[in-house]
């Protein structure tokens, strides 16, 4: 059995409007994300109140008091929310009191106060509040309530909407617009920032208030984006990391001659150009391996001789250590007769 919702909705707004001579039709759209978050904290709060109220009792079980506790909790939250504006004005004169501003935080504080008021003597004087068993028991009660459909989400959201209106006196999280005709209301409804919209990204089924469209778009896993590493591909956000570290032609890799001394990191697609541009450096590294005892002057001369060979283009296209060593040895045998070898 769910508790009744005290708010009478738009019909109540119309009656008040008639009495006051105000526009008859109110926009009742609100920030559904905030209302949902408020509704989500009801079950853990109720479970905590039930556990703290019955722990230590011989004949009490949390599930046995849940129905009555839920009714008391709704009444308490409603009363606190209705007096919130007056309370906050009084507390503004007390600089030591920190006031919550977001409705979710405000309602959460109300729930904490309700839980505190329901603790029995045992839970007040023992170390129960710090016990891991307490948290486990609360989780079990929440799970049991969810499985049994004890307090359905739509009923909780209806109550959360009522509380939101009571505490959001700045009208930040719901629409306050009023209209004289249904036509004006309908026209506004198609533009209201709290209207429900669907994500425009392909295959994304998310829906949310229009006010959150930009926020959702900034994190939507199915939004197509240009590659973060500036390759020509467009990738959906959830696949971006995999693309960048596996198949992206612009992913950074070590030079093929890293193990023999070239410490450059280059985009994968630029390896060929790098090997051409840094041929002198690579040849120098290879020659140091082949001629371990050669002087720096000797190595430079050998590099110059190799660069003058007719196989220069073939050398610059070689992209692995073993192949370049083999080619250098073969060329040196042709262009570097014994009489040209410079000794130390």
Automatic annotation (TrEMBL):
Keywords linked to the UniProt accession: Metal-binding, Zinc, Zinc-finger
Report domain TRAF-type positions. Answer: 216-267
Domain of life the protein comes from? Eukaryota
What Pfam families does the record tag this protein with? Answer: zf-TRAF
Zinc finger (TRAF-type) positions are 216-267
State whether keyword Oxidoreductase applies.
no
UniProt KW Nucleus keyword:
no
Extract the GO molecular function terms from the UniProt entry.
zinc ion binding
Quote the PROSITE patterns the UniProt record gives.
ZF_TRAF
User: Which first-to-last residue range defines the signal peptide?
Assistant: none
Query: What protein am I looking at?
Result: TRAF-type domain-containing protein
Q: Which organism is it from?
A: Nelumbo nucifera
Organism taxonomic ancestry: Eukaryota, Viridiplantae, Streptophyta, Embryophyta, Tracheophyta
